[in-house]
Amino acid sequence: MAKVLAALRNHWKKSTFGACLLGWGGHWLYGKHCDNLLRRAACQEAQAFGNQLMIPATMPLKKATVFLNPAACKGKAGNLFEKNAAPILHLSGLDVTVVKTDYEGQAKKLLELMENTDLIIIAGGDGTVQEVLQEPGLLRIAAFSKIPIGFIPLGKTCTLSHTLYPESTNKVQHITNATLAILKGETVPLDVLQIKGEKEQPVFAVSGLRWGSYRDAGVKVSKYWYLGPLKTKAAHFFSTFKEWPQKHQAALMYLGPTERPPEEPEEKPSRPPLYVRLYRRLRSYWSSPKELPQEVTPEDWEELKLSTVELSIATRNRQLDLTRTEDFMDICIEADTISKGEFVYRGGSTKSFELLFKQSSEKQALLIKYCPEGTEGSFGIDNEEYEAMPVEVKLLPRKLRFFCDPRMREQMLHAAVQ
């Protein structure tokens, strides 16, 4: 023992390095063990869920279509899905079909799958969600809006997961919680933004659109990875070396607010008997002609010209209120009088005045004409980059239904009551 202690003292540098390596290895192995325990508990819960269903042999299984982006999370998404989510889905008694979104020309295949699926699962990040929604004609299908959608956060940026699932620093726990939430069946309605240019196909977003200096600086944060926790501040600091203030000029045209329309019943009423339909038709035929309804004058567009550092158009999905009686989206405008020091200090969090636009009575949705005038930059639509151009933004309220953790849904209802 004395010889061992003497050797450790004489080679203290090697001893210190070995102790650090041993401690790191033990911590890594303990983390792997905890992850395996989480997977096992989730699989046991999924198996218990599948056993409770008691599906007869003659009844077909519930079909789930998974859109998986293997390139998400720097190519790790496929492995994360197979280890953490796939076993839970199979043990729950679902008939799972996996479609990898890593090649072009999938629109036809997606449209065919929509006819034979009971639920959709998007496994990836914000880009994967947008990729599925961008397929031509998909959101125009009435059946697609009624199919519940599950989201398994596997990407680098997963904005929807903050709304649908509790926060978790453990990646495995976050994925298993999201997958189990799909099995529990609780859903919440989410709004969608339709963003359309003059000539191109519309782009759909569940979070929103950003255009300005904060957004441009945020894209470059990864370039300063070597600065660690200072990389965000560094990206905003170096962006101030350009001409200042960085003005983005635009003209907003919008319609005023209206009341939220009533929700459609989930089950259609049964068709009345033949004699009732005949009686109604004869009564309408012999009754006196009704007066023609007066034409509704179209609402006037209001115009707002602005010069701003940052403009964002966002849905209310991040601050979801299940008891709200109006549909609207947030328009946040950052004044162009901000100083360089304040720009770096805030580092992406914009505090500005908000304009709340609600549903238009004439078009049954909100429209905003948004016209950049001779300025550079790109749009960030759900964290995906698009060329800046004049666009028309339309709110599609409660367009999609996403699976949600029951705890998060209860929190939303409790917060609304308070």
Automatic annotation (TrEMBL):
SUPFAM superfamilies: NAD kinase/diacylglycerol kinase-like
Tree of life domain: Eukaryota
Pathway field: Lipid metabolism; glycerolipid metabolism
One BP term from GO: ceramide biosynthetic process
One GO term describing the cellular component: mitochondrial intermembrane space
UniProt keyword annotations, A-Z: ATP-binding, Kinase, Lipid metabolism, Membrane, Mitochondrion, Mitochondrion inner membrane, Nucleotide-binding, Transferase
All copies of domain DAGKc, residue ranges: 59-199
Protein family membership: Belongs to the AGK family.
Protein's recorded name: Acylglycerol kinase, mitochondrial
Species in which this protein is naturally found: Calyptomena viridis
